[in-house]
Amino acid sequence: MKRSSLFIAQLLFTLLVCAFMLVPVLMSLVAGLTRNYFQGVSSGLTFDWIAQVWQAYSPTVWLSLQLAVACAVCVCVIGVPAAYALVRMNNRFSRAFEELMVLPVAMPGLASALALLLTYGQFGSFRSSWLFILVGHVLFTLPFLVRPVMAVMQRQHLPTLEEAAASLGAGPLRRFFSVVVPNCRAGILAGVLMVVTLSLGEFNLTWMLHTPMTKTLPVGLADSYASARLEVASAYTLIFLLMIVPLLVALQAISARLSRGEQR
Amino acid sequence: MSSTVLKAHNVAAGGLLKRRLRPTAAWALAPAAAVLAAFWLLPLAHLIVLGGQQRDGAGSGYWQVLSSPQYLGSLAQTCVLAAVVTLAALLVGGITGVFLARQRFFGRTTLVALLTFPLAFPGVVVGFLVILLAGRQGLFAMLGLKLAGERWVFAYSLAGLFLGYLYFSIPRVILTIMAACESLDRSLEEAAHSLGAGHWRVVCDVIIPGLAPALVSCGAICFATSMGAFGTAFTLGTQLNVTPVAIYNVFTNYANFTVAAALSVVLGALTWAVLLLARRMVKQSRTVL
User: Fold this and answer.
1) The whole model's pTM is what?
2) What PANTHER family has UniProt attached to this entry (chain B) (predicted)?
3) Of the candidates A24, A88, A111, which has its C-beta nearest B268's C-beta?
């Protein structure tokens, strides 16, 4: 197949961009496994750094996982009904509400965290528990679930299906759980994966909201970047990437399936 | 065919259905509304009020921010940096996005997947990646040592920050542009070509206007993220004079809540104004948040 020179130029440019995105990630992977980064890979490969990181920072990994799961549950519980309501109402009020919901994402995370801290910071036991961070994460991730769920709901012929269920005598709750929720499973799944991924990596809010007893993975990462040696920091990043990349792969597979459904 | 029937059916049943379902729908919104009101609107209102409070006879927080060359300078620097990053990301991501959406070749899907992974990297990790690229022991330092006999180190300056912001903006632009390209009418380009327009004419007069809504809304999101990005700046060094770092320093080092609140409100208002402006310019588009 003959390709024009323009194609070659564009391909080279794209590969260059790809290199910019990937080379530092690969460097970090290599650095995390190298015995001495300054001597290079010739000094030998080792898992020592990862073991060392695990010893020092494993609580942050568990706390982050706990937060991510709790955040996904909370966002589902409040987000799926909200998406349903927004699709169903579709008036000026619902559009204003949608705007409001996206604001915590658009606003600088530091500002939101500061507002939370200055308002609820004096409640000592709430402030020092992991629930304080959870609140921030729920605010930040809510639109990322509501949006895909709304998109799926708008595509399905929900009013017709619901009307059928209603004519058969199903009440509102029954209709919601047996008609609405099963019909937008794919959207919910995509949203949940996104929420978990974002919650695992959230830093801007978490850094302000955390206490020494509630350190999450990204907070630990910032800690190690500031104080630990390069190999340790890299090994820690490696652990983080190992947690997050499978989620992203699953997310891409689901969104590919969703967009195929859109074309049908 | 069947979808038309369903649509007609929906329209016919719409009035009746809406009346019957609306109260239930409003109840479903209640939990989300309660959470947003308690943990977002209330704290935000508190923050706005706090920024207006007087302290030590130095005037309200807003006045202290707006009359201090240091804070104004940091705000201006943050805005300029975010704008430059946005333009660069739109250029780089635009070229790559159009290319990936239009061409089919071996390895394309893998390339798209690899390019979109960094979208979910947190700012701290991006900061560390910039250090690996351009820090004291980074790739560029080694390269400079080999080529010019001196280490090229620019990670801990505005250039490093620019690189980091560019890093997390590019995937977002690529995804949005690729989605927008799908809905672009190719026959317009073919018509332009057949009328004798060269490649550049087609790009400037057909493709860019067609992509304009996506470019504007995605640019606004990139700008907003760059304005508020704290993690990257935090990793690269707290002496960088960008507003999120300034807020952090004022809050933790001087415990000056009034000025910290005022600075946050000003930064948030600036970001919001840009998003609103973009919304005014484009009514409808699909943006990747």
Assistant:
1) 0.85
2) INNER MEMBRANE ABC TRANSPORTER PERMEASE PROTEIN YDCV
3) A111
Model confidence pLDDT, tens digit, residues A173-197: 888 888 888 888 888 998 999 999 9
Minimal Cβ distance to A201: which of B13, B21, B122: B122
pLDDT at residue A111 is higher than 70: yes
Tell me how crowded residue B148 is: count the other CB atoms within 10 A of its CB.
9
- B142 close to B199: Cβ distance less than 8 angstroms: no
Name the 3-class secondary structure at A45. Answer: strand
Cross-chain Cβ contact B275/A108 below 8 Å: no
Residue A25 at interface with chain B, using a CB cutoff of 8 Å: yes
| Cβ neighbours of B29 in A, within 8 Å | 81-82, 85-86, 89, 94, 97
**Domains, chain B, ordered by start:** 1-51 (no CATH), 60-281 (1.10.3720.10)
Q: Which residues of B touch A218 (CB under 8 A)?
A: 122, 124-125, 231
B39-93 per-position pLDDT tens digit: 989 999 998 988 888 766 677 888 888 888 888 999 999 999 999 999 999 999 9
**Close Cβ partners of A17 (under 8 Å, ≥ 6 residues apart):** B92, B96, B115, B170
pLDDT band at A70 (very low <50, low <70, confident <90, very high): very high
Which span out of A186-200, B4-18, B178-192 was modeled with the highest average pLDDT?
A: A186-200
**Residue A172 contacts B, CB cutoff 8 Å:** yes
The interface predicted TM-score (ipTM) is 0.86
Nearest residue of B to residue A220, measured between CA atoms = B124
d(CA B45, CA B64): 19
The whole-angstrom distance between B289's CA and the closest CA on chain A is 8
Residue A73 has pLDDT above 90, yes or no: yes
Across the interface, whether the CB atoms of A86 and B29 are under 8 A apart is answered yes
Can you give the pLDDT at residue B6? 45
How many angstroms separate the CA of residue B168 from the nearest CA in chain A?
A: 9
- Cβ–Cβ under 8 Å, residues B287 and B179: no
Give contacts of A143 with chain B, Cβ < 8 Å: 289
In chain A, the domains with their CATH numbers are: 1-46 (no CATH), 51-263 (1.10.3720.10)
Asked if B99 and A10 come within 8 Å (Cβ–Cβ), the reply is yes
Name the DSSP letter for residue A34. Answer: B
- The pLDDT, as a whole number, for residue B94 is 92
Q: Which among B9, B10, B129 has the least Cβ separation from residue A24?
A: B129
